[in-house]
Amino acid sequence: MSNTTSVLYDHPGPRARIRNRILTVVFGVAILALLWWIYRRFDEAGQWDGNLWRPFGETTTWTQFILSGLRATLFAAAAGMALSLAFGVVFSVGRLSDHWWIRIPCGAVVEFFRAVPLLLMIFFIFYAVPFLIKAPVSAFWAVVIGLTLYNGSVLAEAFRAGIRAVPRGQSEAAYALGMRKTLVMRHILVPQAARSMLPVIVSQLVVLLKDTALGYIVAYPELLQRGVNDLSANFGNVVAAAIVVALIYIVINSLLTLLAGWLGRQGQGPRAPKAGEATQPSAPSKAADEGAVATA
Amino acid sequence: MDVFSDPRNLDATVSGFLWILKLTGASAVLALVLGVLLAAMRVSPIPVLRLFGAAWVNIFRNTPLTLIIFFCYFGLYSTLGLTLSEDLVRNIYWLGVVGLSTYTAAFVCEAVRSGINTVPPGQAEAARAIGLTFAQTLRIVVLPQAGRAVVAPLGSILIALCKNSTIVGTIGLMESSSVMKDLINSYGNAGILIFAVFAGVFALLLIPTGYFFGWLANRLAVRR
What we know:
A: mainly alpha, MetI-like fold, disordered C terminus, B: mainly alpha, globular
């Protein structure tokens, strides 16, 4: 990114250096004032009181609330990741099928689940499905199935873009060797697509991990539920607990994002197609794809 | 069936979707302004501003929106006493808008920044060569081109924002997902119909929006 950024302005001359220094001081003071104001607001509300922060120094707080919540979060995320990757592969391949009676239903499913808010699906699975199957659905499965349908559909689109971006010569060569459609897809196209789309896939998995927090709404005992809601019910320190839990989320997601960046650099082989080349021919494909996938 | 023939249920459904539209509208404007400002900060020659922009993006992009909305209500309002409106429902609405736009601005910032990177360096170099300042270069030369390039990602962000606004239901706004939950709880046997109506409205609203932004992005794309 630095290549364009650095050409936006010249190497500063003497006047620019002075001006930049003045602006640095002005904005620095402004930001410090903002932080000071936040600090004062917290202080007025008594949020720096040691009693609110002391629970985080005790082991039981961590074992009972935060770590147990974190385990449930990671558990739901792992199940959701495995299932949505499978869902994504199946439906991307289905949408590229030669038979219209496979292609169209797969396309409809993917488009539908991408357009419906995840919370709506979780509510449907958690509150309505028990009426239909005459058996309760656990909060865990409501969250995992919801995450799978939504993120699986987004991943299906990412895979599809990746598969279509594999150079045509690859599949032509495979057909020339006498491979059948299934074999070409399984041995030639999907592996290359998965490798070239790795950064996009991982950033969608970060989204999935964050979305497990929706489990809080259906009382799945994940990190937000245990670490913020239940913890603050015991100690009355909702602001402190929210800050600590947010930091945990930020650390985990930053690590995953770093992993995505590293994988992206690893995957840039000589043939790796640019992400999204097939779907957005003229728009800035990389940017478009990152934006398209890494939100929610 | 008779769920939606009851005018009370129909009214609740309509007002639920109106809340979604209001949340989306206000947050979209705020997030766009804030996101472009943050992107400008992140490419500016002043290190303090670059740091501020980077911190904002890394903090809010990596925190679950549910936690941010939760914090807006229980932290900002209940604990720190920030009140945005005297009316209880309005207050929740504005707290939701604050949470949504804080979160979405981080994504807008990243989209705009990657859009800026699609503008060939020659453009900025030429702008500098004719003596434009940093602000002029950005405003007159780079951002208009970047803006065309980010139409598609901004469209996806807008769609995500619209879907995310259902999360404001967590803090007690009767938006569409909360209305749907209540209807399902009262009319359990019509669960599929109720879900089909709510999901269908979202699909009818958002799938065409997606295609529209795809079309717009193609139309506005800078041909190079």
